[in-house]
Structure formats: C-alpha cells, structure tokens
What does this fold into?
Amino acid sequence: MKLGPPKQRAVLALLLTHAGRPVVLHTMVDALWHEDPPATAVNVIHRHVAALRRLLEPELLSGTASRRLVRAAGGYRLDVTGDELDLLRFRTLRQEALRLEQGGDRVGAVALLVEALELWQGPAASGIPSEVRALAVFTAVDHERIAAVKEAAGFVLAGGGGLTERVLVALRRAASEHPLDEGLQARLIEVLAGAGRQVEALETYQAVRARIAEEIGLDPGPELEEARRAALDPTPPPRKRALPDGDAGAGWDRASAPAAVRPTQLPRDLGAFVGRLSELDVLETLIPGPGNLAQTVVISGMAGVGKTTLAVHWANRLADRFPDGQLYVDLRGFHLTGPAMSGAEAMRGLFDAFGVPVGRVPAGSQAQAALYRSLLTGRRVLVVLDNARDSEQVRPLLPASAGCLAVVTSRHQLQGLMAVEGAHSVTLSPLDEDDAFSLLARRLGATRVAQEAVATAEIIGLCGRLPLALAIVSARAALNPGYPLAAIAKELQTSHGSLDAFTGEPPLADARCVFSWSYRALSPRAARLFRLLALHPGPDCSVAACASLVALSLREARSCLAELVRAHLLFENEPGRFSSHSLLRAYATELVDEFEAAPDREEASARVLDHYLHSAHAAEAVLAPHRERITLRPPAAHTLPERFPDQRAAAGWFDRECPVLLAAVARGGRYDDGSFGWQLPAVLELYLDRNGRWQQQQTVQRIAIATAQRGGDVLGQAHGHRALGFALSRLGRWESADAHLELALRLFQELGDLAGQARVHRYGAFIANQHRRHADALEHYRHARRLYEAAGLFNGEASVHNEVGWTHLLLGENERAIEECGRALALHRRSGDRNGEAAAWDSLGVAHLRVGDHEQALDSLRHALDLYRRLGDSYLEADTLVHIADVHMAADRADGAAKALREALDILEVIGHPDAEGVRARILHPAES
It folds into this structure.
C-alpha cells in the first residue's frame, strides 16, 4: 500500500501510535511543523486525513462517515483492533506475560515476550521524517520494546529458560541499536554468561566498556560492573524473582475505549519501586468489579514515606482495568509555599480532562459536582487524588459511578472519609530493613551495597528508612561512584541526620541534612539556582524563566537545570518545563533565606516577575500589534524576556504559561511599588477574553484593582475596573459590569487618558447591543470615535467604524452597515492593520449576506478567513467559518455549511472556547440553525 507523502505518513504514524485515542489537531501541527507551521497547517492535516480514509476504507462512499478514522475531541481517532495492529498485539502479549510471571510461570512469560518481540520489524515509525520520528511519542514506543527485551532477559535469568537462544536474538538486535544503554548491555552479558558463554560475555563487556569510554568518556556503571562479575563467576548466586520493568504497560491500549474523551493522566511509574508487598496485597482486595459500588482508598502516612509512589505504582498496575480513563490531580494539600488547590480549580481540571468546554461548566459548586457525577455515569474510571489536605477537599471529587475507584493520598488519616464515605485506609510506615536495602541496591548496584553492608545499614538507619531520604542520598552516591558509602554514612552522622523525628512537627527538621547531601554536591551556579527557585511564583518553570531568575544565559541555565535533574532535586515534567517536590522547595526556601541577602532576593524576584510581565507584553504585541497597550518600565537588569516570531508562538506561550502567570498575579502585591500587580492582568486581558477564560479574568482583575488601590495607582485601578466590567458582561452580570465600567470611565477621565476612555465606551456599546439598546450603543461609539480622533489613534477610529457597522446590522440597516464597514476596511488597509482589516472583511461578509448577495458575502468572508489564518488567530478563524456556514445555509448549500461548521468546531474544541457548544448544536440539529 502506498501511504503517500512523508507528512501524510507521519499523520498515520501518530494516529496508529495513539490507536483508539484522539490526537488533537494542535498536536499534529506541532509534530509536523514544530515551531514554524504554515497558516494552512490545519487544512493540510484535513487533506491528509481525507486521503488516509480513502486508503484505509477504499469502499467508503463520498460523503459517508468513516468507521475507522473519526473526528474526536478536537482532532481524529483511528479505531483498529489487536489483530490489525502489531503494536496493540505486542502490548497485549507483554501484559499477559507479566501476568504469567507474577503467577510464577516464567517459561510461559518468556514465550509470550519472545512472540511479542518477533512482531517488531524495526524502529517505530520508520519511513517518516527524522525530525518527527524524534518526538517523545515514538521514542516511548521504542522504549516499550527495550523494556520487553529486558523483561525477557530477566525472566530467563530467573528460571524461565528454554527459549534462551530466541531471547538472545532479540537482545543482540536491541543492544546493537542502543549501544550506550548500559542496562540493556548488562542483560546481554548476563544472559550470555548464564548460557555458558563466558568468553563471549566478557568480550561483549570489553567492547561496551571501550565504546562508552570513547564516546562519553566515562567508566562503566554499577549494572555493567555487576554483569562483568557475574560473567567471571561460573556459579552466580540464585536470583530473586525478577520484577517487571518499571514502565510495564506504558502506552497500554484498551480495546474497549469509548468514543468519548478517555483521559490517561497517570504519572510514569518508577523503575526503582521496591517492596510494599503487604500493602499491595491489601490494596488488591479493594478494587471494585465492573458492577460493584465505587470504592475509595486512602493511603496515608508521614511526608516522604512514599504515598504518591505507591499510589502511582498501583494505579499503573491496574490501569487496564479502568478502560474509560485514569485521572490524576495533585491537590497541593501540603504545598508549603502556596495554598491548597481549591475545589473549583480541581473540578476545572477534571472537566478539562474530559474535554468539557468552559461554557458548559456551571458556576455553583453543587452544580459542578452534579456535572462531574454525570460525566462518570456508566464509565469505569480510576481517579488518583494526590496530596489531599482534608476530607472536605476530597469529598466533591470522589466518583460515585459503579466500578470506579478513587485513590487518595494524604499526610492526614482523613477519618471523615472513612466515617462518612466508607473509605478504606492503608497507612504507610517507613520501609523495612530488607526493602530499604533493596531500594539502595536497585539504585546503586547490588555489589556496591553488599561490599559496604555495614555502611549501607548505617545510612538506612540515619535516613529512618524513609524512601525520599534514601532516594536523595543514593542520587548523590550514584553521581560519585568512587565515593565510599562509609564516608557518606559518617557525614550523615556528623550532621545528626537521623530521620526518626520526621513523624513529629515540623516534618522537615531532620530531613534537612539528607537534602543537604544532594545540595552540597552541586556546582555553585546550580546551587544558587536551586535556592532562588524558591522565589519562582508558579507550579513549574521554563528554561528562560530560570535564566532570568538567576541572571544567567540560556545555555548556562540549561546546564544548571540538567545538573539539578540528575541530582533528583528537580523533575522535568515535560520537555523544557521543571518542577520540584514540595519538601525540596521548602528546603530551598530555608536556603534562600539563609544564604541570599535580602537585596539579592528582591532583585531575583524582580527579574523573574519582570520576565513574565515583559514576555507577556511582547506576546500580546504579536497577537494584536495595533491594539493600544500600557507602557512598561524597562525590565530589571539581566532579565531575558521571551520574543515571539508569530502569533502562533505567542498564543502557545500564553497557553503553556497561563498557570504561572495567574500565580504571578497573585504574588504581584509583593512587588515594590505595586505596578506589577495590575500591569500583568492588563496584559493578560486580551488572551483571557479571546479564550473564554472569563472566570479567571474576573479573579485576576479583582487582584489588579486591589493592588492598584493599595499603591494609590489610579491608572491601574482604571484598567482593572474596565477589564473586570467587560469580563462580568461576558458572564451575564450586567449591573456589576455597568458599575465597573462607569468607574473606569471616570478614572480615565481624571487621568486625561483618551484611549482608555474610548475603549470603555466600546465595551459599553457591546453591553448595550447585548440588551438591544442599539441607540445607546451608537452613542457610545460616537464618543469613542471622537476620543480616538482626538488622540490620533486612527486604528481605534477604524475599529469603531466597523463596530458601528455591526450595530447597523443589528438594526436591520444593511446598506448603512456596508458603508461603515467599507470605511473601516479602507482605514485599516491604509494603516497596515491586518487584524482590523480581517474584522472589517468579516463584517462586510455578514452585511452582504443580509442583503442577499451570497457570492459577495463569501468573497468578503474568504478574505477575512485568509487573513486570520495567516495571522494565526484561531478563535476569529472559527468565528468567520461560522459566518461562512451561514452563507451556505442561506444559499441552500447544506454540505458547504456542514463542512465550515465542522472546521469551526475543531478549532473551538482545541482552544476550549465556550462557543463550541453552540456550533456543536448547529451540526447536530441543522434544521434549527
């Protein structure tokens, strides 16, 4: 079968890799074009999908809905079975092999893994462009194969012999493709030695050792050294039962996945997980069957004891039993530098996971809980609620649908959940001695800890057998393989590093010395970055933000971040975004207070807040270059604000940074003169409004007003009241909206700010038109036009002409509308304002539709559509497509209308805009539109 051009093959590869799950359009665009997609990117993808449908279903009649490649969740989903796709068959065989091995049938497990591995014909997604194949989604599939190879080797070594030669075929092939994977090479050496081929095993070791030394300049790690010793010893000690690879089941596909959005949010399981066998046995008895009542399990214990690790490990093990989705929420119940997650924020995240548009989310908490219960009705879903503060925080988030399971972790026992909700409790204590020893052996190599068994036991005691403390100490030891464990134990003792008191208050008192071991091993620059990250406002940060925070170049910041990740002091949640455990952040807070002088802390805070303010200002300037905007003072010295080549890059930055920006607004009141606290909300206004984030708009603008009032900043108060008034109008709170706009107008008048007054009048006109007070709207526009003219802002004047034209359309005065919109078009063209020109073309298109000139209407709207696509303005592109659908409907071209509405819905669903619901209703009920 000829699969078409490279990008079409790449689209197919993405769909196959996500078989049974939707791939949203922006994911395809980013995959195919990275940071520089053409304006026609979405259309190109639609064309590739149409061609793939013809390839996959040649019998499909034109206009008939596809049964395989279907629209779903703002993108497309490819439905295939395990008999049709080797990847699904591979995953099924691997999962069954792990089940057999857990039951003691290692021979059967090896046979299934060999069968699974023989399905592979080469690397995943061969034949697509290399830059696309390098994406994490494809490398993760390759990793599944490597994990299966390691599992097969482990099972053979643990007593699953009989298929050693076939396992060696897979091992040799994988090892040749991944020559620097020390774990894989170690398995090859061990299996060769186990098969009696000691000479070949040692030759393999020498070849790998030489290659590692030549290419990366390092000595072999613990795994390779242990494999070499095993090859030298003809009678190695018997192995314990092999454990499955930590990524077992990664990417596991459920054949029963429903057509609706099926979230898969579980964090990655840890390959170094050990022990907790008795707790896992108890947990297994609490899993509800498909028709049984929903269950809630609370895993509690002190900080650092491994509650989240156990919950995530167990959830990954049983994920395939919950085919309708797996949700994960970090409730931040004990986040030491910020408040616990509110119920509304948690619920919003759950709605986002199921693709619920913002406009469909009710305002009241009880109504939201009812909607959540409705979403889960008839579904079998696993919900992990991590780091809960109390029972009341959790209760609204518990699923009630039969067969669902909620796993809650908390430092508190949450007795309220047990008494009222019938929750089951599993309380964790520190690891026992054997499991703690196994954890260090897994991380440092069994030989190293066995050779220094006394020192290992002392470290375990000094760490109180606490998993988090053991992980941090072992990270230091792993980075320094030549450093004796006895020396680490001695220094821990000198630092009074016992963690026995960790069960008391404050919980960090004795963990501090354990954290210090990783910290003291850092380079000076990385150590300073670790300290200053305590001043960062948001849940995670980018490389550029870190560079500004610590006053380094981007290259230097990347190097420091990589060092912190290696030391397990930071986690890279996704490429280029970093966060840390709350306990480590608390430790960083202590360090920054102790080692950074107050002026240095203030300068770092100023840099990072200025980074976000000036980056957001630059992004807004790209999104709307002719819109009037506030003037900022220069950023603090050594700040590196981001720059954006086009609107897509600017909008993408806002999407990624939105949680951080909102957190920065909340912290803005601490900024020196209070200007940051209102300026960032002012810069965020356009983005939040265009994307339908009106509740968030309300929150940040109230903060802006309060901050400006404390600082006596009249301009800030004026901007805040104006933006808050418009947000309230979007939410239908008309009286409050009018009051805030009236106050904003009075403040802008006091300041003599003509442009500020003009925009207040435009917002007032919008509200008047919503209430069909069109004469009042025209009066507002008369004032706005006069103010813009006095200020010399001709783009604003042109926009008013367009909005006046729209008002005449509402009055049924179509010819007058064409005249006003035509005047707006001429003015925008003269000034080079392409955003304004597109808006005028759109209005003209609607006006020509009203007078029955369908061809002229389509011509005008296509001008607008082309401009919005070139500008990358997704929302207004969708709005124009809806108007194009109106023209087709008026001209009795139902197919054209349906096509335009589907394209609009795709866009609105991707950006999560409330307007998607209305467009969806028109598609489902065309006769009523």
Residues 236-259, 496-510 have pLDDT under 50 and may be disordered. The first helix runs from residue 6 to 17. The radius of gyration is 31 Å.
